[in-house]
């Protein structure tokens, strides 16, 4: 990776020269000596006539060298300066290229302050690489054959040698200094090689364009932008492996890495240690200083752990306040020494928090487990042993390091570990789906006859001919605006008529344009045809093979504009044939795809004909503008016809299909229009060899595009799996919370054996009233939960008062009224129930302001509390009591309406009326009947005194709630 990887390999100040192995020292110093000698020798051979241009190139290379793009690992990065290196190699040869690279790295050295031997190695390795690439170029040039073709082959061979040798030299340095192989360091992967080779080739292409027309170099900028977007892929992939709060690896990455390291330890008979670390008393920090302070401590502790770890170690956040450190090739004694240094560093650190004037202190407990060469421990067993060790450290007083097996394990600690007990768990975060970016694409439509649909119907296919679970399966669901999709399959005859009509139009256009076509350029057609075969063959399927994305639209547009009708027809045929061979389809689909491509490409020829003379005779800006217009025309034509075909096949509206599936492709067709003009320009100025040079970055882009889509699919699949697990866990938590609320409600109601399930009935009435009032589901749910716990404060009321058969004294009535404030205070202790506090506190307020505890009136009372008050009264009136029988729903409604505006909110009363009109007598339930059925005791006779509404008189108010 040239200028990536070797700086991070050794850049920590802790890794001074004397700390690396002797063999690494010899290799690094030997490279520096050899590279320095080559640099001095080639610098004397540089041609001074292009000094100012080389100076500008040095400045551009230095600027690009400073600003890095994060790579596949935290210790690697990419630099767009490789584009400049490729251009320098073509324009001025080996001497100037070495000078440009040296100047760029010296500026980077001053900017990033790398250790002296790191950047010296970088410069020297590049000098050796460039000299070797120059030698390859000269050797290949001596091969027999056409000059242009041999020169192109020599240049591509030199660029390939440049890429491979540089990666090998850097990879060897990393392996000797850090003990990581080429695959482990990520330096010699296909992706990194392809990206670097693509950037060098793009630089070479820009050099050729510069030699013909310097202003045309602007075309390279757009291709460079596409490469930049591809280069960001590894960083996006890494985001799924990182903990968003601390920047460390997450538990999922640690699991996969531990499995690989365990296998490696077995094959090499090496020890392997894993450390579990738990931040002590994080909950106390959160409670004392706030959660922001706790987060800041977590981040700084993570920085200390990372800084104290070796390059070969992997530090991860397991979740909450738990961390893990994987130490390959480390015995228990070696791990203990290193971990103790970490523990002491954390103990000595002072964490400055912006919200608190004094620094915060923190400590950490560590547990170490080691897999020795003779052990056969699994990853789960190793982690479990480290977990036991860290809980031992907690048990013996925290802020200490315990090695598993060296201390007896207390029984209660073992039970705590098995049950997942910890001092306090911090909420963890999940990774975000990376935002995808659109890819260049050319479209092939899905066409199925009625017979095909019937054949697929027995194989798990929908009537639209797409497999279940495909990315575009939403096309089979209801319309976004609520309109249902048609329940019938459109006639295959209509679809076939459309295909036949498209083919007829294409045939007429072919006849019309071939009448005035000149002699074909068979060499150019062959070159562009091979290019189309390569790009279409590498197309990536989306929408479950209904549509594929590729960059083959670029040679189609370029070939049509450069070679006229022959180019349009032949390239359309080539692209269609490759897609047919790759995917397989009935003849109807083959005919439609060929017709679609042909119509679009011939329309571009018609567009250019409006200029009145050949495109090549116009100035460059007009040529570029017409090519972009041609790409827009191809976009509109191809996507429009495909959308109509899909509509006929599925029965969905054309506009909806186009908006959902094809609108996002617009910007990509513009970019591919730029690429198409680059192909036209390269072929016109340098012939097939020029096209070959511009082809390389295009192929690299296609390869990277496929990797991007595949990686994105994999990341989405992982995120879906995580979301599914989180959804299940959330459902379990919600179920547990619901069960706890119901259990609490039953425990409240069980205090009165004559009124069982009172709270659940109140919750049901309250939820129905809230729904009738049009409250959103979230508020309805809060009202329902408040109904379950509205009487929780009665748990603090003595039974002698709560169930007193005689009239209450004023003091007793005051005690009863305290149940609302007691209940509110109890709920304040639970974060999940905190929103219910005002509803429970104020559900005995009256609309006229004469209620309790705060004598609120009207709108001052929370709406949820007003609903709860009415629901509570309705349940009390509906149920038998020792001193009266329950009332009918008509009697309850009359009583409620009589007290609207005084005790109850009129709008809540009207909502209750609507419920009565809708449900009738089935609306209310006599909870005392349930109590009688369970207790077997008869209901006592009602008292002679008349029934009064809840809270109408102090003597009866407590009995009606």
From TrEMBL:
Gene3D superfamilies: 3.30.70.270, Hypothetical protein af1432 (1.10.3210.10). It comes from the Bacteria. Residues 423-434 have a biased composition (Low complexity). The keyword Transmembrane helix applies. The chain crosses the membrane at residues 20-43, 50-67, 82-107, 114-137, 149-174, 208-228, 494-514, 526-544, 556-581, 587-612, 624-648, 668-701. Keywords: Coiled coil, Membrane, Transmembrane, Transmembrane helix. Residues 755-877 form the HD domain. Residues 733-928 form the HD-GYP domain. The keyword Metal-binding does not apply. Residues 270-406 form the GGDEF domain. Residues 709-739 form a coiled coil. InterPro entries: Cyclic_di-GMP/3'3'-cGAMP_PDE, GGDEF_dom, HD/PDEase_dom, HD_domain, HD_GYP_dom, HDIG_dom, Nucleotide_cyclase, Rev_trsase/Diguanyl_cyclase. SMART domains: GGDEF (SM00267), HDc (SM00471). It holds the Pfam family GGDEF. Residues 419-486 are annotated as: Disordered. NCBIfam families: GGDEF (TIGR00254), HDIG (TIGR00277). This is Diguanylate cyclase. It comes from Litorilinea aerophila. The lineage of its organism: Bacteria, Bacillati, Chloroflexota, Caldilineae, Caldilineales.
């Amino acid at each position: 990776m040239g200028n990536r990887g070797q700086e991070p390999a050794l850049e920590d100040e802790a890794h001074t020269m004397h700390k690396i192995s002797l063999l690494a020292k010899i290799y690094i110093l030997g490279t520096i000596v050899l590279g320095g000698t080559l640099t001095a020798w080639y610098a004397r051979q540089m041609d001074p006539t292009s000094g100012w241009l080389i100076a500008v190139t040095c400045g551009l290379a230095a600027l690009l060298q400073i600003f890095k793009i994060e790579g596949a690992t935290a210790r690697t990065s990419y630099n767009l300066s490789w584009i400049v290196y490729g251009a320098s190699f073509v324009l001025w040869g080996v001497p100037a290229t070495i000078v440009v690279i040296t100047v760029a790295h010296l500026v980077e050295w001053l900017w990033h302050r790398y250790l002296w031997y790191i950047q010296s190695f970088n410069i020297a390795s590049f000098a050796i690489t460039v000299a070797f690439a120059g030698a390859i170029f000269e050797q290949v040039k001596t091969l027999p054959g056409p000059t242009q073709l041999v020169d192109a082959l020599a240049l591509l061979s030199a660029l390939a040698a440049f890429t491979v040798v540089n990666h090998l030299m850097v990879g060897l340095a990393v392996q000797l200094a850090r003990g990581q192989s080429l695959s482990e360091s990520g330096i010699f992967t296909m992706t990194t090689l392809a990206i670097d080779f693509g950037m060098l080739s793009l630089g070479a292409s820009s050099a050729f364009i510069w030699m013909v027309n310097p202003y045309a170099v602007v075309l390279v900028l757009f291709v460079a932008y596409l490469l930049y977007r591809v280069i960001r892929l590894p960083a996006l992939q890494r985001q799924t492996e990182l903990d968003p709060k601390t920047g460390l690896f997450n538990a999922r990455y640690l699991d996969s890495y531990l499995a690989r390291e365990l296998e490696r330890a077995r094959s090499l008979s090496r020890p392997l240690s894993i450390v579990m670390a738990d931040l002590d008393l994080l909950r106390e920090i959160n409670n004392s200083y706030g959660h922001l302070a706790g987060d800041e401590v977590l981040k700084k502790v993570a920085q200390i752990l990372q800084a104290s770890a070796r390059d070969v170690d992997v530090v991860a956040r397991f979740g909450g306040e738990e961390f893990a450190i994987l130490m390959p090739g480390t015995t228990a004694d070696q791990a203990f020494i290193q971990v103790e240094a970490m523990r002491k560093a954390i103990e000595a650190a002072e964490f400055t928090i912006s919200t608190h004037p004094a620094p915060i202190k923190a400590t950490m407990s560590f547990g170490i487990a080691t897999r020795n060469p003779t052990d056969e421990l699994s990853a789960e067993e190793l982690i479990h042993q480290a977990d036991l060790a860290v809980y031992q450290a907690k048990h013996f007083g925290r802020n200490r390091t315990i090695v598993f097996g060296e201390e007896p394990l207390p029984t209660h600690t073992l039970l705590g570990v098995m049950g997942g007990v910890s001092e306090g768990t911090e909420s963890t975060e999940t990774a975000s789906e990376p935002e995808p970016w659109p890819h260049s694409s050319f479209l092939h439509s899905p066409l199925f006859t009625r017979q095909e649909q019937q054949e697929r119907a027995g194989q798990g296919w929908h009537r639209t001919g797409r497999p279940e679970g495909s990315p575009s399966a939403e096309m089979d669901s209801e319309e976004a605006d609520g309109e249902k999709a048609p329940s019938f399959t459109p006639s295959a005859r209509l679809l076939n008529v459309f295909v036949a009509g498209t083919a007829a139009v294409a045939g007429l256009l072919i006849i019309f344009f071939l009448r005035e076509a000149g002699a074909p350029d068979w060499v150019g057609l062959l070159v562009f045809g091979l290019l189309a075969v390569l790009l279409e063959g590498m197309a990536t399927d989306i929408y479950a093979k209904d549509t594929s994305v590729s960059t083959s639209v670029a040679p189609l547009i370029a070939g049509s504009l450069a070679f006229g009708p022959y180019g349009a027809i032949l390239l359309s045929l080539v692209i269609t044939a490759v897609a047919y061979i790759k995917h397989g389809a009935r003849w109807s689909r083959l005919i439609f795809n060929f017709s679609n491509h042909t119509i679009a490409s011939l329309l571009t020829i018609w567009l250019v004909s409006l200029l009145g003379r050949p495109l090549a005779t116009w100035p460059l800006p007009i040529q570029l503008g017409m090519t972009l217009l041609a790409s827009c025309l191809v976009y509109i034509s191809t996507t429009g016809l495909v959308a109509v075909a899909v509509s006929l096949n599925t029965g969905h509206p054309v506009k909806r299909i186009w908006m959902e599936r094809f609108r996002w492709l617009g910007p990509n067709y513009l970019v591919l229009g730029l690429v198409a003009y680059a192909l036209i320009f390269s072929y016109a100025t340098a012939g097939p060899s020029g096209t070959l040079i511009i082809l390389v970055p295009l192929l690299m882009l296609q390869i990277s595009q496929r990797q991007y889509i595949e990686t994105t699919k994999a990341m989405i699949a992982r995120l879906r799996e995580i979301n599914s697990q989180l959804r299940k866990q959330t459902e379990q938590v919600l179920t547990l919370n619901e069960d706890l609320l119901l259990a609490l409600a039953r425990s409240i109601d069980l205090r009165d054996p004559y009124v069982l399930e009172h709270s659940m009935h109140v919750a049901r009435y309250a939820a129905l009233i809230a729904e009738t009032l049009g409250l959103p589901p979230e508020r309805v749910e809060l009202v329902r939960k408040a109904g379950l716990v509205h009487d929780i404060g009665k748990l603090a009321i003595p039974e002698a008062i709560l169930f007193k058969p005689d009239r209450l004294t004023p003091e007793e009535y005051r005690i009863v009224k305290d149940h609302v404030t007691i209940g509110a205070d109890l709920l304040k202790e639970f974060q999940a129930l905190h929103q219910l506090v005002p509803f429970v506190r104020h559900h005995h307020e009256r609309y006229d302001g004469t209620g309790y505890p705060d004598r609120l009136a009207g709108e001052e009372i929370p709406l949820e509390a007003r609903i709860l008050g009415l629901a509570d009264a309705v349940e009390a009136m509906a149920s038998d009591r020792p001193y009266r029988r329950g009332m009918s729903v008509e009697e309850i409604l009359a009583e409620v309406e009589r007290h609207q505006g005084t005790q109850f909110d009129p709008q809540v009363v009207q909502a209750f009326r609507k419920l009565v009109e809708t449900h009738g007598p089935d609306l209310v339930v006599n909870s005392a009947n349930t109590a009688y059925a369970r207790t077997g005791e008869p209901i006592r006779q009602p008292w002679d005194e008349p029934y009064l509404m809840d809270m109408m008189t102090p003597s009866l108010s407590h009995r009606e709630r």
